[in-house]
Amino acid sequence: MTIGRARILSDVSATIERGEWVAVIGPNGAGKTTLLRALAGLLAFAGQVLVEGRAILSSTRRQVARQIALVPQQPQTPPELTVAEYVLLGRTPHIGYFATETRSDRLAAERAIARLSLRQFTDRSLGSLSGGELQRVVLARALAQEAPILLLDEPTSALDLGRQQQALELIDELRRDSELTVVSALHDLSLAGQYSDRLLLLDGGCLVAQGNPDAVLSEEAIATHYGARVRVIRENGSVFVLPRREETRWAH
Amino acid sequence: MVEPGKQTANRILKACSGCGQRFGCAQGEPGCWCEAVVLRRETLAEIRAVATDCICPACLSTFAEKDHAEREAATEVTAKNSNATIWAKALPHSAVRSRGVSAAWGIIALAFLAGALLVGLAIGPAAIGPGSIIGSVLSHLQVFHVSAPLSSVDEAILWQVRAPRVVLAALVGGMLAVAGSAYQGVFRNPLADPYLLGVAAGAGLGATLAIAYAAAGTDTGLLLPLAAFAGAALAVAGAYVLGRSAGGVHGTSTLILSGVVVALFMTAIQTFVQQQRSETLRAVYSWILGGFGTADWHAVAVVAPYIAVSSAVILMHRRVLDVLSLGDEEAASLGLDVRRARLLLVLVATVGTAAAVAVSGLIGFVGIIVPHTIRLLVSPSYRAIIPLSLLAGAGFLVLADVLARSLMSPSELPIGVVTAFFGAPFFAILLRTSRRMVL
Questions:
Q1: Averaging pLDDT over each range in B13-17, B143-147, B414-418, B423-427, which range is the top one?
Q2: Number of Cβ atoms within 10 Å of the Cβ of A173
Q3: pLDDT score, position B222
Q4: DSSP-assigned letter for residue B21
Q5: Phi, psi at residue B29, to the nearest 5°?
Q6: Is B358 exposed, middle or buried (CB count within 10 Å of its CB: 0-12, 13-18, 19+)?
């Protein structure tokens, strides 16, 4: 399957395989969110995004939404809606314009809710949930969409360290048992390195490096594109990126 | 094969969806006994085809054994699927649904409207009791064979004077309330009302031009609604075109500002015309204040089709409006063509509002207060707001009209004064006592 071969920001071209987890990394303003929005067909752009050979821009919104679910960085969660109602909104691409959801839509929403262990929250309002619970609800909505491709914009940005790991583990589990292709923008390079199969490094709107985490995450590359001093530690096939304070400051 | 084991999850006693046996079920939560059973997708699909809810350990065993045998038969294919979805065994039940309109609220709203219609028909200078009204209604329906309880004069008062007025007020009230909810949903703005994009200014200008420049002897009764309708439609079309050409990415706020610009421009022309023809001021003013003093069956027949189509289309958008509440971007990522939906909603709401304004003048407040009352009392979902607003708006305006014509009888109060005077305090109390946020 090809998502890529896209010329979006200025020269971004990539192919993403079915079932892969690809993390989009890069400094602030590099165009990570823009890339995800373009992949979801939310932007008009010159170039092409192909999903299984079909161009996103020539598909209807409904067709795209059946293929691609997007979880934005800060999703709108109207506080008065219940979890059930919110997850049901994820069924929109499967429901006729003037129709309301059918039994099969309710079953799909139910499965998504059960899958993310949210049954006890089904009738709770979104406003009464914690940040971590809310994030699971948003994932449930995306899962209810039953699209084979899941785009996640900074899924861990609002979470503490433990919940970041839990969220990424959960996404990985969902990816495996629902056979999803995941493309996520990730801020934390260590997490990106550990969870994704492949990295796309963007800087200034250009794709400057792509490949497996071991190849992309180097001290030089991070210094060049992030302007950051880091140490990259490779251990048991994992890559850790640690920020490092300049040594001269230690002197006195 | 399946052991209802040592788990601690909260169980409820449930009848098996397969065989009807009672069993303890934790509804698929972590810790439920069914968690220990791993099945292939194909088997899950089979279970789902025969059962609508969770099934008991015995039934699940049967499926699990069959599943196991099939898996043995094709080991290499199923190896990948071995961590298949254990969650799906807690089969779906009815918990996941949108609230919509509950039966209780539906009945309350219908009763409110029926009561308001009855009050509207009963109250007036000639005393006609509710019993006689119902009798008269039944006598008109051939099937009941009831003889008319009213004198022919009372019959005429009831059916030629009061009934068209009550029906028109109900139509206009329902339309304004539904159009108001649609505007609030489309613009995600609690202050939006049906006049947001310049309907009021456009209709006002149209009416003023008709009153000021109509050739002597023309029947303004016929011309005025047409002119008001045309002005309203023109204003919103202008605002929409301006908003689209200027707006682009900024979405609804540009559209609202365009409405303000168009409204200001049209008001300027209207003021100029009034200045030139100051003898028309009184007629224009009384039209703008609104009311149903001139209502007849003809007016009802003219606006009913517009209002029926418009409110039906908005009703069918109730789920789309909920999707729009997630914002343009997320609504688009859920497969909604946001621009088309917004255009369609604005279009039908405007046509309906313009038709209502054409026959009743500018009646404020209904389009804001009714949807918000429903939102605060019942649910923030448009599935409740739209249908209940239709009923409650109709009843509300019928009652307001009763007050407008009876408080200072025989003279009439402008109905806008009544809606605001009684609506505002009611809404203030509601706002204070309700803990829910508005939007």
A1: B414-418
A2: 12
A3: 75
A4: -
A5: -70, 160
A6: buried
**pLDDT tens-digit profile of B111-165?**
999 999 999 998 888 778 888 888 888 887 767 666 767 788 888 888 888 999 9
Q: Is residue A247 part of a domain?
A: no
B283: tokens are 């007629």
Count of domains forming chain A: 1
| Contact status, residue B125 vs residue B174, Cβ threshold 8 Å | no
The answer to whether the CB atoms of B437 and A79 lie below 8 A apart is yes
Long-range CB contacts for residues B254-257, cutoff 8 Å, separation at least 24:
B255/B187, B255/B197, B256/B187, B256/B189, B256/B192, B256/B196, B256/B197
User: What is the total residue count of chain A?
Assistant: 252
Q: Does B22 touch chain A (CB under 8 A)?
A: no
Q: Which of A87, A98, A118 best tests the B interface by mutation, with the highest count of B CBs <10 A?
A: A98
CA distance B427 to A148: 47
Instruction: Give B227's contacts (C-beta < 8 A, 6+ positions apart).
Output: B206, B207, B209, B210
By CB atoms closer than 10 A (0-12, 13-18, 19+), residue B87 is buried
| Residues A66, B335: C-beta atoms closer than 8 Å | yes
Point out the residues of chain A with pLDDT beneath 50.
Answer: 1-7
Q: Which residues contact B65 (CB under 8 A, 6 or more apart)?
A: B1
| Strand partners for A50 | A55
**B91 contacts B47 by C-beta, under 8 angstroms:** yes
Token pair 């959960």 is at which residue? A170
Amino acid making up residue A65: A
Q: Does A6 map to a domain?
A: no
Task: Please state, in angstroms and rounded to a whole number, the distance separating the CA atoms of residues B349 and B178.
Answer: 8
Phi, psi of A68 (to 5 degrees): -130, 125
- pLDDT confidence of residue A88: 94
- Work out the angle at residue A115's Cα, subtended by the Cα atoms of residues A109 and A119, and round it to the nearest 5 degrees: 70
Residue B110 CA to residue B108 CA, distance in Å, equals 6
- The candidate with the shortest Cα–Cα distance to B204, out of B262, B127, B136, is B262
Domain of residue A67 covers 21-213
- Chain B residue with CA closest to A93: the answer is B335
Give me the domains of chain B, ranges plus CATH numbers.
12-89 (no CATH), 103-433 (1.10.3470.10)
* C-alpha B432, offset from chain centre: 24
Average pLDDT over all residues of chain B: 81
Q: C-alpha angle B147/B144/B171, rounded to 5°?
A: 95
CB contacts < 8 A, A to B, total: 116
CB-based contact B185:B321 (threshold 8 Å): yes
Assigned domain for A193 exists: yes
CB neighbours (10 Å) of residue B293? 15
Count Cβ atoms below 10 Å from residue B41 Cβ, excluding itself.
13
Give the type of residue at A182: V
Q: What is the pLDDT of residues A218-228, one digit of tens each?
A: 888 888 898 88
Q: Does the structure show a pLDDT above 70 at B86?
A: no
Question: Across the interface, do B380 and A80 touch by the CB < 8 Å criterion?
Answer: yes
pLDDT for B374 beyond 60: yes
Domain assignment of residue A42, yes or no: yes
Res A145: pLDDT: 93
